Amino acid sequence: MNWLLWKEYRLNRLIVLVGVFLLLFPYAVAAGLLAWHWRPVGAEIHGARLWQYWRLLAPLWWSRMVWAALYSLGISQLTFGLLGGSAIAGERVDRSAEFLAYLPLSRGRILAAKLLFTLAVSAVIWLPNLVILGISVLVLAVKAGDGASILANITATGLVFFGVGWLLSTMTESPSISVCVGLVVPVIVLTAICGVGYLADLPADSHYPPYISLWYQVVSMAIALASFGAGTVYYLRRVEP
Amino acid sequence: MKIDPRSHLPIYLQIAEGIRAAVAAGVYRPGEALPSLRTMAIQLQVNPNTVQRAYDELDREGLIYCQRGKGLFVAEQGTSAAQASACDTVRKSLEEAVKSARAAGLDPERLRELFEAAVDGASQTRSHQS
Amino acid sequence: MSTNTPDGPAIELVGLSKRFGRTLVLDHLSLQIPRGSTFGLLGPNGAGKTTTIKILMGMLAPTAGAARVLGMDALAERLRISQVVGYVPENHHIYRWMRIEEVIGFCRSLYRSWNDETCREMLDLFALDPRKKVKHLSKGMLVKLSLLLAVSHEPEVLVLDEPLAGLDPIAREEFLDGVLRTICERGRTVLFSSHTLDDVRRLADTVGILCNGQLMLHGNLDNLLTTTKRLRATLVDGRRPQALPAGTIYERLDGREWLLTVREFSPEKVEQVRGQSGVEHVEVLDIGLEDLFKDFVKGQRAAK
């Protein structure tokens, strides 16, 4: 399995690089903005006095961190789209799938390695951000309410990116098409839900109606799981590499 | 020893011929071991079964014998048997040559002239070489 | 259900058919290759050699019939088969960004019977630099690497698909060296498809000619070559006689010269030809593998 994981990493090195950028970019922006805010203050701060100013600036810092974490989580879902879409199709485009086809390697093991790799990437994307969000919530003493819904939407979107990309990846030889379709589906789902809501004349009582959110999450999860399942079954049963 | 895959002579006979010539020339002497099946096959780049057939043929002829566990060795009378066999081959070639000559219309006198010229030519070359 | 009996054939094809769209590439192909033999699969381009090999390796599903390796079904037990079969494909798609030592490490982790010693021997024999990346290898080195990967796990069966295509003479010799070392090991079975008839002549015990998806000619190579002869007859008035001897696979008329290629040759057949009216002079000629192959294929095409 080690060699398989190493192979996955080497194959997806570029995607990992993009993923790291997407993960850290929002924090870089946040740090930049904070540095800009602290500019006049910074000239006077030395050692002990920083502590006094810290207590003043802490809420600002952490609210910026919340923003950065959510932004980071949001755009990092693209990484899942890239990973899902290039999972199998990426090995067909350079025909290395034909090399694997005659080695004593089961499709199951190949998939397991890819999933393990994706899980590792997920952990790197989600855990640090969740930790930062957790600390922010504690420090700022706010209710997580809205935040939970936002996180749920982000998760659902990421799962659809991955699941649909995965399905197309098992069936085609083009990673690009697989990724693109995966990225487009959530847009279609959201539009469809809003459209249905509009046509059914349901009340739109805020700029972010809760029922749209809920429906979006449910439909997206369903699509993601179904696509992933179908793709996996298809790949395991297919004879050609 | 080289094998010609294009020749119409089966490869195992080519190998047998090659070994016979080597024995006749003293490359392998009576009592010496022949190269193993594997060595010969790799050296000549042929299937080891073919080499086995060649060895079997020579064993049948009495040119070589098999010692269990030790391999194949050139028989004591190997050199003379090889030379006898070489004579046989030459005789057959000569008979073929005569047949073609007669078919082409050459008379026996002309044939004898050609043969003597060939023999003289060969001994001259040898004296140049030694 | 698998039956890896020690006396069963190494490779068995039973009524194997494969259709691509409307084209029938393999047509009820049946063949048995006994253990310990070396089988040369010949055939014109497009005859179905690579298709057959891909089906054997479980990379293609047959339309009908079965393919078995060491008693195991090629498709159902692909994983078990891959542990005991070494395969050198026609086109190599080894990861180009990997170094040779990384490819070896990768494959080594997958095979139960990997032999480091054999691997080292092959690396030396082929003079491959472990630190070199696959994308920097010449065609010859790539083929040799493929063979190295195929034989390092001591397979019982070695399958080679047009392995010598495009190799320079030295690479060819080194490759044959590597293959022969396998053949010499405790009776392993080798199946190879090739166009270089000289190499088939050297290595194969048995040959089969695949033509139009069917196995047309099949048997011991030396036997085929000694029992097939060419008859060269001179015709008085250039008119082709009506009756052909049994087992004629090809005939050609060129002015007054009539060439026949006849299988299962016997002196009676010569007499039969000689006895025809208009036939003046009949000569019997030996035939080489290349001519046998060409005459056979041409004869099949003429018959269609």
The poorly predicted ranges of chain B are: none
What's the overall geometry of chain B? elongated
The total count of helices of chain B amounts to: 5
CATH superfamily of the largest domain in chain C: P-loop containing nucleotide triphosphate hydrolases
Q: Give the second-level CATH assignment, the architecture of the largest domain in chain C.
A: 3-Layer(aba) Sandwich
Major sheet of chain C: size, sense and barrel closure? 6 strands, mixed
User: What is the strand content of chain C?
Assistant: 25-35%
Helix content of chain C: 25-40%
CATH class of the largest domain in chain C: Alpha Beta
Sheet with most strands of chain B = 2 strands, antiparallel
Binned strand content of chain B: 5-15%
Shape type of chain C: elongated
Distance between the termini of chain B: 22 Å
* H-E order of chain C: EEEHEEHEHHHEHEHEEHEEEHEH
How many domains make up the coordinates of chain B? Answer: 2
Rg of chain B, rounded, reads 18 Å
**Quantity of strands of chain B, as a count:** 2
Estimated structural class of chain C: alpha/beta
Oligomer: heterotrimer
Q: Which features characterize this protein?
A:
heterotrimer, A: 241 residues, mainly alpha, C: Rossmann fold, 2 domains, 4-stranded antiparallel β-sheet, 29% strand, elongated
Commentary on this structure:
- The complex is a heterotrimer of chains A (241), B (130) and C (304).
- Chain A has 241 residues and is mostly helical.
- Chain A has helices at residues 2-11, 13-42, 48-86, 89-93, 96-101, 107-140, 145-171, 175-199, 210-237.
- Chain B is mainly α.
- In chain B, strand 1 (64-67) and strand 2 form a beta hairpin.
- The mean pLDDT of chain B is 84.
- Chain C starts with 10 loop residues before the first strand and ends with a helix.
- Chain A binds chain C through residues 2-3, 7, 10, 94-99, 101-106, 239-241, and chain C through 57-61, 75, 79, 82-83, 87, 89, 91-98, 105-107, 109-112.
